[in-house]
Amino acid sequence: MVWFWVLVLFTANLKLGLTHIHGGEQPLAKINILQTTVALHESASISAEPVLLGLKGEDTEWITVNFVNPKPSLDDWVGVFSPAKFDPSACPPVNERKKQLPYICSAPIKYKYANESSSYYEKTGTASLRFQLINQRADFSFALFSGGLSDPILVAISNPISFTNPKAPLYPRLAQGKSWSEMTVTWTSGYDIDEAVPFVEWGRKGDLQVRSPAGTLTFKQNSMCGSPASTVGWRDPGFIHTSFLKDLWPNFIYMYRMGHLLYNGSVVWSKTYSFKSSPYPGQNSLQRVVIFGDMGKAERDASNEYSDYQPGSLNTTDQLIRDLDNIDIVFHIGDLTYSNGYISQWDQFTAQVEPIASTVPYMIASGNHERDWPNSGSFYDTPDSGGECGVPAETMFYYPAENKAKFWYSTDYGLFHFCIADSEHDWREGSEQYRFIEQCLASVDRHRQPWLIFSAHRVLGYSSNDWYSQEGAYEEPMGRDGLQKLWQKYKVDIAFYGHVHNYERSCPIYQNQCVNKEKNHYSGTVNGTIHVVVGGAGSHLSKFSQLIPYWSIYRDYDFGFVKLTAFNQSSLLFEYKKSRDGKVYDSFTISRDYKDVLACVHDGCEPTTLAS
């Protein structure tokens, strides 16, 4: 009977923890598109220009949409649809008994209210809007609606517009391979393998270029676990290609471009990009790592933002782009797009991060908004992924996991060893993932790679976020129960988490006890792990508890990210920067020698013998 109530309380805590996470609604989910009624008005019109986009090879263009409505109202809005043609025949019936088909069964990819640019719209019925479009492998049309988002009435439909080559290879995403000397390039195109052969042409800057083949993947509507991903949120993702660039020389600049060899012998090329190859594990040199979670995406034309869904996303993105020459690798630890089942948003996200992801490895972790869906094998039985159940994230990005459906992996970058956990699958003692985490932590040679980093999306360590404090804990239920002894045994330096949308740093801590009184500089024996919540990269912010725990050294209710700089094997700089100005608001340094890592600490001692 006791175990029954323990289980009930644990399940309730899991669900309670998630009810506080949402805090915002995916803007496209507000549109009741299946209830659209058609009332095309002969005096209403909408048009878009230019008609042909990307004439100079651009993959992003600004569009002007002009429209007239003889009966304007405050809640009129304009939606952007792609593909351009509405096809009711593909829609499931909204009334099974009457077999009634909706006129539109796919959500727009973005929208704006009609009066955004003109306060006189309600009087004149005439206005224009500016939209920014990216190449998404299909044409576009614009539709004028009255009736607001909840009861849409279609008033007018525009002419279609399109990019000159909608199938072009776009939005490269770099990632570390399974070896330090391997870089992967993943990109999106409209070319299936029966149309063209994908490859990457690459080589050291100034040297002969070689070609490496690429594999091709995609996913279909029936791969989605539920709505909206399988219904109104569905949009064809195109084809996802990944090429493996192997046997790289350390610290060299490499040039690359993606290509598709058509069967007529011609090649469709992407732009040319470059990256710097990874240092050899243990190499004693300057190495800079950026870590954050929960960034999401936003629209540079200010569409879709009426819910203030991800207000800091562009600030973080732009700050990283400005400092890109001083960044070597990026870790985005879960909640990537917040697409929540609206598949078009994955293109928007990959376009937004392209300047970063095409230049440095963009390593990801799985969050609740990528993976969680009831009865789909996720540890949390909640609908946070909007029916995606991990499929888009696992396909759109490469990460060096043994099994892409099990989102845990290790990776090396010079002086760093990273163990990336998957908090959306069971991590508890005795689980498959727990065994991986211990193996990952145990495998590092701390003489060569002194800086050992653990990361997961949910807070498996410490956070004084408001909803955790309401539950009487400062972690996910059972978060650190079994993990803290691994962190202590293998002397993990820093553990990073997202999920909570703010910034917080703990003291070096073990079993709820601070083991070091310092706040700005740590030296000597590695005793206790510093826990850092860095989930404030873009999505709506999370409130802290009113009580500040003794272990919490710094808290910030703002958007930001963390940068780690390893100067050598003995010196590490930690900096928390705000996205709005890029300035440092919290920092500390660690200095130590190899003997300090070997030293015996509580629950972190190697066995000894009295034998001589």
Automatic annotation (TrEMBL):
Keywords: Glycoprotein, Hydrolase, Iron, Secreted, Signal, Zinc
Reactions mediated catalytically: a phosphate monoester + H2O = an alcohol + phosphate
Location of this chain's protein in the cell: Secreted
InterPro entries, per the entry: Calcineurin-like_PHP, Fn3_PAP, Metallo-depent_PP-like, MPP_PAP, PAPs_C, PAPs_N, Purple_acid_Pase-like_N
Keyword set includes Iron: yes
GO cellular component: extracellular region
UniProt signal peptide: 1-19
Keyword Nucleotidyltransferase: no
Residue ranges of every copy of the Purple acid phosphatase Fn3-like domain listed in the record: 46-165
Pfam families: fn3_PAP, Metallophos, Metallophos_C, Pur_ac_phosph_N
EC numbers for this chain: 3.1.3.2
Family: Belongs to the metallophosphoesterase superfamily. Purple acid phosphatase family.
Purple acid phosphatase C-terminal domain span: 528-587
Listed cofactors: Zn(2+); Fe cation
Quaternary structure and partners: Homodimer.
Gene3D superfamilies for the chain: 3.60.21.10, Purple acid phosphatase-like, N-terminal
Phylogenetic lineage: Eukaryota, Viridiplantae, Streptophyta, Embryophyta, Tracheophyta
Main localisation: secreted
Domain Purple acid phosphatase N-terminal: 172-276
Span of domain Calcineurin-like phosphoesterase: 288-503
GO molecular function terms listed in the Swiss-Prot or TrEMBL record: acid phosphatase activity; metal ion binding
Protein's name according to its UniProt entry: Purple acid phosphatase
Native source species: Gossypium mustelinum
